[in-house]
Amino acid sequence: MPETGGQRAGAGGGRYDAVVVGGGAAGLGGALALARARRSVLVIDGGEPRNAPAGHVHAYPAREGTPPAELLAVGRAEVEGYGATVVAGTVTSAERLPADEGDGFVVVRDDGTRVEARRLLVATGLVDELPPVPGLAERFGRDVLHCPYCHGWEVRDTPVGILATGALAVHQALLWRQWSDDVAVFAHTAPEFGDEAYEQLAARGIAVVDGEVTGVEIVADRLTGVRLGDRVVPRSALVVAPRFTARSTLLAGLGLAAAEQAVAGEVVGTYVPSDATGATEVPGVWVAGNVTSLAEQVVGAAAAGVRAGAAINADLVAADTAAAVAARRAAGAPVAGAHGGPVDLREHWEARYAQSDRIWSGEPNAELVREVSGLPAGRALDLACGEGGDAVWLAGRGWRVTAADISRLALERAERHGVEAGVGDLIDWQWHDLGTTFPEGAFDLVSAQFLHSEGDLPREEILRRAAAAVAPGGVLLITGHSGGAPWEHGHAGVVLPSPAEVLAELRLEEGAWKVERCEEHERVQTAPDGTRVTRTDNTVRVRRVTK
Question: DSSP string covering 144-173, please?
Fold first, then answer.
């Protein structure tokens, strides 16, 4: 049985790999993916789904007519069948655990039950704020509707009314005309329509009813008309434009806030921003469904939940692997290579470059460009130059570059790059295992961009030799990762020092150097699956004082 990093406990207490807040389609989709990945999962279900009054399920043609509550009950049984725990209740707070209590979150339910979660998936949905017309709330999801793709088929070829409360009313009317040739717009409280709008409505045979709607007529539990004072216009369905407000109060304790979403300049609601997998800006917290995508329907919400669940599992796998590597090393085991022995850095990097015709983008590192663009060209040393993106960029700006790397295959590619760029005569490509040999000379710029590696890389020693190679008045520029990305499994056991630690490890002679930059910074990077993620790096820039 694989380790999950968490355990289930009775009545929804204890610690879990993931706690899912919300038992709708999105939450159950995420729970299903995680439970099938053999993770310990707790789903806290707040009750009836948002579309519970509806007599059918949005966008589920294969299951048309199945009440949402019944369909979701099937989903709950399914995730429980894979080992997840589903409990009823409302989450009153969620906060990150104190640093001395470990990585994760504490979640408190309305009955006082406290559980811990390594990761959170919030699928709390949204609240539909309806126009303040008597009778609408009681009929919403039945014959007071908003989405033609959710309900249009069920009211096809019947008299449909559009309650106009904003500039999008004309668009709504034109859209609903696809399902019925008897559509009327009730002007209600909307701004005056323009001439073009009136022309479009007339061309499609859509009537405009002036006056403010005061209520709806109900006969035998069915909507039969729309009331304007003492006048009733027969209709069997009324379309409204709710304001969709994400249920995001829970996220406030985690530092997340909802943002407004506008359509055609009109605010239609709020949502919690996230990336394509549902990851929020708070590490360890994902969102799925209507809380982050206002227009999501049942099928899409379930799929979004599955994506979020898969992303959470991948994040947990990376964390589990890092912990296992750290424990192995703490026990005194050597850093292992592909066949179980110690990593040979030369073999490792030759094998890495042999995996593909190109490993890196060929573009220079952003921090190098930012820090060097204002420097006068001179002699530069590029350590661990890889396929030559930095060296070629420097040479293109007049620098004479010595570029060193441990991989001969990488150097061959880099040399071709330099020739193709027309700067080959300005670059001296040198092979070095920097832990044993080092380029000779003094340089106006020594650059070490992301000098990290599995295995026994003497990074501190190399960087001290790099500092010794800086000429008077010259600059040493070091950029590194402050933390690994989930897909960078090779960084799981690599020590990633802070900028202050890097500076201390250089052991610079007091009074001989000026610290020009020593800080962490964020950058956006594209993951292997195409998603955009934000990660933290650090940069140290020091200048040797001219004597």
Answer: EE--HHHHTGGGTTS-EEEE--STTHHHHH
- Neighbour count for residue 37 (Cβ, 10 Å): 20
Q: Hey, what's the torsion of the CAs at 67, 70, 71, 73, to 10 degrees?
A: 160
Highest mean predicted confidence (pLDDT) among 140-154, 427-441, 451-465:
427-441
Partnered with residue 99 across adjacent β-strands are none
What is the tens place of the pLDDT at every residue in 330-344?
766 555 555 455 667
How is residue 185 written in tokens?
A: 């717009």
> Which amino acid type is present at position 364?
P
Contacts of 206 (CB under 8 A, 6+ apart): 173, 174, 177, 183, 184, 185
Average per-residue pLDDT for the chain: 85
pLDDT tens, position by position, 513-543: 999 999 998 887 766 566 677 888 999 999 9
d(CA 501, CA 482): 11
Q: Which residues contact 185 (CB under 8 A, 6 or more apart)?
A: 161, 162, 164, 169, 170, 173, 201, 206, 207, 208, 209
Quote the CA–CA distance of 419 and 431 in Å, as a whole number.
18
User: Do residues 167 and 190 make contact, with C-beta atoms less than 8 angstroms apart?
Assistant: yes
Residue 11: CB atoms within 10 A of its CB come to 10
Q: DSSP for 230-279?
A: TEEEE-SEEE---EEEE--GGGGGGT---EEEEETTEEEEEE----TT-B
Strand, helix or coil at 133?
coil
Residue 382 pLDDT > 80: yes
Residues 6+ apart with CB under 8 A from 534: 281, 522, 523, 524, 525
For residues 49 and 57, is the Cβ–Cβ distance under 8 A?
Answer: no
At 455 the three-state DSSP class reads: coil
State the Cα–Cα distance between residues 385 and 414, nearest whole angstrom: 8
Query: 383: helix, coil or strand?
Result: strand
Cα(81)–Cα(83) distance, integer angstroms: 5
Distance from C-alpha of 146 to C-alpha of 162, rounded to nearest angstrom? 9
Residues 162 and 151 sit within 8 Å (Cβ to Cβ): no
* Phi/psi at 90 (5° precision): -120, 135
- pLDDT over 90 at 395, yes or no: yes
Closest CA relative to residue 227, chosen from 240, 237, 236, 214: 214
Orientation angle between helical segments 408-420 and 345-354, nearest 10 degrees:
50
Quick one: CA torsion of 488, 494, 496, 497, rounded to 10 degrees? 180
Instruction: Report how far apart, in Å, the C-alpha atoms of 415 and of each of 388, 419, 420, 445 are.
Output: 7, 6, 9, 20
Residue in this structure with the two tokens 């995996």, named with its chain if needed: 355
Name the pTM for this structure: 0.56
Residues in the chain: 547
